[in-house]
């Protein structure tokens, strides 16, 4: 029977064993701690992405209408926004039990003002009367004031940020003229949802300001949702009918669909999303890596620990002869094993506490709490305890008493090198694959950072968005004042800058001197003088906009026949002009406008760095949505004083408060932040995989050299040199690594297209990179074996013979 005295003896023996093999114990604990921490973080990261929308009430029965234009290169999988008329069409197609709602994000259209200042903190949506029937806000008390155009409700976080006390009853200004009373406060939206707003106002408020936005089957400003208990397949006829209507209205092929909102975050990359979506292929690869880390950590722990037990087989055999049962042996080994496991867990939790907030949270693009990571870590820990306990129990059951006493660690079941070599060979192959993928991912990140964008984003600072009916007058005053500041080189504005979604796209273009050429949905960027110069775009032919040519300006009231535009190289190629000279001076018509090409610039990548450049043209003074961003370019590296002066002038001219100008390069980086974060996570944890695989090599080498300790000493006595002994050990342990390297290299060559599709990278197996990956892994493995071998070979010749 087990008693407390036995437990004390077992613990005493365990601590003595740990102290005796301090290096091995340290590596056991460190390896498993790193594995637990890394795999817990990865699995928590994946869990957060995979459970998007689960905190949103009734998410399983909510669908969103989306559009795709298969004949147009949108730079994405489709469009998340629909025309206003889609709601009424769907209501006519669906039964009365299905609720349909629409809302529009108003931040980019109508400013919110409080106490005479524009408040950028507000991110409101204007909703129709069905909104609260589709989306549940259980804590919200809707009053009658919200049913007309005079009320607005805000989130708890927004309320605490803007208002010092109870915000209910406070009056804000919508679009600078329409008063809105705050009539309620709602709980913040779940962090894991594609929805992104912090204030809700009635759609009637928008209708009173801009009724044109609320009708028609062209354009796209509205998010349209339905709530139904039907299955997705039940909407096929409705989707086909909507596609036909939109195709006729927009004069371009349109495929409409209803998508479950639970699929939005992981399955598609739509333009106009309120939040960036995750790359599901990279995410699944990261999750696979997380699972592999947990398995590798557990295998390495068992290998190292079983190597320690193998050296005690004689002791265990003698104890069994003296009357101890195998259960006693198992409990004794289990005590030592649990001490090491709990020490690893404590170290992993300590590393999490020390590094998460300071370092790890910076490379993770989604909020993850320490409690979630700890919960995942505990689940992994329990799983490891159960799995490794079973393996340990099997190891003890297979212990042969006679062989243990006579042969020590040799010829005992479970102490053969074969199975352990196979495991290390697998880990070596995995290390090579991961290292090579890491090289490609590094190149991908580097290429994305240095991709030819067609503009220079250094020292160009972008203002918050401005929505102002007197913008031109206010900008002229801002330009006059800001231009006088020391170091300011250029002051200009545009309807959008790189990293921003396009405000406007032409419905149809016709080219005057080329027959049968019609283009649809070509983005139009409204700009001011010096816009193209501030971005340092490359002029290929003609000229950019100049004050010397008044006819360039797109807004005019006289009888001029046309105005000037600047087009990109891809625009020229898509039209089919044979050279730049044939494009210059050509007339382009869309709707009731006529433009003449005055200049051609190199392509500019406005949105996704992974997408090829799309055709764009720039129109001087073009006004699509009456919203602008101001750009200030400095001649040299700007400093905080200069930026503060510019911000103060901006605030005084446009009624903002403590505005912050953003560096254009930061906006471009943030646009692609989700992709960069996932690739960075993959790269960081690839290094951890390699580290853990090297620990596996260490375990094998330690186990093997300990078994051959007597042989090594005898060979040393007979005159074998340390170099020859090292070669003998290297051959034994590196042979499986070399074989696995050949297998890994072959697998990479055969599967390069699969990896390329999975990671969305252009991956062509480079002989140099592949050879270097193999060499680096084999070199690290060789150094690990050499370190273990040196310790064994350097042992004095008396001790091993005495112990044997």
Description:
It is a single chain. With 804 residues, this protein is of the alpha+beta class. 50% of the residues lie in helices and 15% in strands. An 11-stranded mixed β-sheet has the order 5-4-8-9-7-10-6-3-11-1-12. Strands 16, 17, 18, 19, 20, 21, 22, 23 and 24 form a 9-stranded mixed β-sheet that branches. Strands 15-25-14-26 form a 4-stranded antiparallel β-sheet. Helix 10 (280-310) packs parallel to helix 13 (370-397). The chain is elongated and about 100 Å long. The two termini are 33 Å apart.
At a glance:
The protein is α+β, with helices and mostly antiparallel strands. Helices cover 50% and strands 15% of the residues.
How are the SSEs placed, and which strands pair?
Elements: H1 4-20, H2 22-50, E1 62-68, E2 78-79, H3 86-93, E3 99-105, E4 112-114, E5 117-118, E6 124-127, H4 131-134, H5 144-147, E7 151-155, H6 156-162, E8 171-174, E9 178-186, E10 199-202, H7 203-209, E11 223-227, H8 236-250, E12 255-260, H9 264-267, E13 270-271, H10 280-310, H11 313-321, H12 326-355, H13 370-397, H14 401-407, H15 417-450, E14 460-462, H16 471-482, E15 488-494, E16 504-505, E17 509-511, E18 518-519, E19 523-527, H17 531-534, E20 539-542, E21 563-568, H18 569-575, H19 580-583, E22 587-590, E23 593-601, E24 617-620, E25 629-634, H20 640-654, E26 662-663, H21 664-671, H22 673-707, H23 709-717, H24 722-750, H25 752-759, H26 767-793, H27 798-803
Parallel strand pairs: 2-13, 6-10, 7-9, 19-24, 21-23
Antiparallel strand pairs: 1-11, 1-12, 3-6, 3-11, 4-5, 4-8, 7-10, 8-9, 14-25, 14-26, 15-25, 16-19, 17-18, 17-22, 20-23, 21-24, 22-23
Helix pairs in contact: 1-12, 2-10, 2-12, 2-13, 2-22, 10-13, 10-22, 11-14, 12-13, 15-22, 15-24, 15-26, 16-20, 22-26, 24-26
């Amino acid at each position: 029977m087990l008693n407390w005295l036995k437990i004390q003896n077992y613990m005493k023996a365990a601590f003595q064993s740990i102290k005796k093999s301090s290096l091995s114990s340290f590596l056991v604990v460190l390896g498993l701690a790193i594995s637990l921490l890394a795999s817990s973080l990865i699995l928590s990261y994946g869990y957060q992405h995979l459970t998007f929308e689960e905190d949103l009430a009734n998410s399983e029965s909510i669908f969103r209408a989306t559009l795709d234009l298969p004949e147009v290169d949108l730079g994405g999988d489709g469009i998340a926004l629909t025309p206003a008329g889609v709601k009424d069409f769907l209501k006519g197609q669906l039964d009365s039990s299905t609720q349909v709602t629409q809302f529009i994000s108003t931040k980019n259209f109508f400013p919110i003002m409080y106490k005479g200042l524009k408040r950028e903190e507000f991110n409101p949506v204007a909703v129709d009367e069905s909104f609260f029937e589709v989306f549940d806000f259980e804590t919200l008390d809707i009053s009658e004031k919200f049913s007309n155009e005079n009320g607005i409700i805000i989130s708890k976080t927004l309320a605490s940020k803007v208002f010092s006390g109870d915000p209910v009853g406070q009056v804000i200004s919508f679009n600078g003229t329409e008063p809105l009373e705050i009539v309620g406060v709602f709980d913040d939206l779940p962090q894991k949802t594609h929805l992104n707003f912090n204030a809700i106002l009635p759609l009637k408020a928008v209708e009173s300001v801009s009724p044109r936005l609320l009708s028609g089957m062209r354009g796209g400003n509205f998010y349209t949702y339905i709530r139904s208990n039907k299955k997705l397949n039940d909407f096929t006829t409705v989707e086909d009918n909507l596609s036909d209507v939109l195709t006729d209205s927009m004069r371009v092929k349109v495929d409409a669909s209803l998508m479950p909102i639970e699929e939005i975050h992981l399955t598609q990359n739509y333009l106009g999303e309120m939040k960036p979506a995750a790359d599901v292929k990279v995410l699944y690869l990261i999750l696979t890596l997380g699972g592999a880390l947990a398995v590798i950590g557990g295998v390495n722990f068992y290998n190292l620990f079983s190597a320690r037990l193998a050296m005690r087989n004689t002791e265990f055999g003698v104890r069994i002869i003296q009357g101890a049962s195998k259960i006693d042996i198992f409990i004794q080994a289990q005590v030592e094993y649990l001490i090491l496991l709990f020490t690893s867990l404590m170290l992993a939790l300590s590393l999490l506490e020390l590094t998460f907030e300071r370092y790890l949270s910076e490379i993770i693009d989604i909020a993850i709490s320490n409690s979630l990571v700890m919960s995942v870590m505990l689940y992994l820990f329990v799983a490891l305890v159960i799995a490794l306990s079973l393996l340990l129990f099997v190891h003890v059951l297979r212990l042969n008493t006679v062989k243990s006493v006579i042969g020590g660690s040799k010829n005992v079941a479970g102490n053969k090198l074969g199975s352990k070599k196979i495991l290390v060979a697998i880990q070596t192959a995995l290390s090579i694959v991961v290292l090579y993928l890491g090289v490609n991912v590094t190149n991908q990140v580097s290429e994305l950072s240095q991709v030819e964008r067609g503009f220079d984003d250094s020292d160009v600072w972008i203002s918050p968005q401005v929505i102002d009916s007197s913008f031109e007058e206010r900008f002229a005053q801002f330009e006059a004042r800001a231009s006088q500041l020391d170091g300011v080189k250029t002051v200009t504005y545009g309807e959008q800058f790189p990293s921003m979604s396009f405000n406007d796209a032409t419905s149809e273009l016709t080219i005057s001197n080329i027959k049968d050429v019609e283009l649809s949905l070509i983005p139009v960027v409204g700009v001011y003088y010096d816009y193209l110069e501030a971005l340092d775009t490359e002029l290929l032919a003609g000229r950019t906009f100049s004050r010397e040519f008044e006819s360039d300006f797109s807004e005019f009231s006289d009888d001029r026949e046309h105005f000037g535009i600047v087009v990109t190289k891809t625009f020229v190629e898509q039209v089919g002009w044979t050279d730049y000279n044939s494009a210059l001076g050509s007339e382009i018509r869309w709707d009731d406008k006529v433009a003449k090409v005055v200049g051609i610039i190199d392509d500019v990548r406005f949105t996704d760095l992974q997408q090829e450049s799309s055709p764009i043209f720039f129109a001087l003074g073009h006004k699509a949505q009456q919203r602008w961003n101001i750009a200030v370019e400095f001649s040299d590296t700007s400093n905080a004083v200069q930026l503060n002066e510019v911000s103060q002038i901006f605030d005084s001219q446009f009624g903002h408060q403590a505005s912050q100008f953003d560096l254009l390069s930061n906006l471009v980086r943030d646009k692609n932040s989700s992709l960069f974060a996932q690739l960075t996570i993959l790269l960081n944890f690839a290094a951890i995989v390699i580290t853990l695989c090297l620990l596996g090599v260490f375990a094998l080498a330690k186990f093997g050299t300990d078994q051959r300790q007597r042989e090594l000493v005898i060979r040393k006595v007979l005159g074998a040199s340390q170099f020859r002994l090292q070669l003998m050990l290297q051959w034994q342990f590196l042979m499986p690594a070399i074989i696995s390297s050949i297998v890994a290299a072959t697998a990479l060559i055969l599967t390069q297209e699969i990896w390329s599709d999975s990671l969305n990278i252009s991956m062509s197996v480079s002989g140099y990179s592949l050879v270097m990956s193999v060499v680096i892994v084999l070199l690290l493995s060789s150094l690990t074996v050499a370190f273990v071998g040196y310790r064994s070979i350097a042992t004095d010749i008396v001790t091993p013979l005495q112990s044997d």
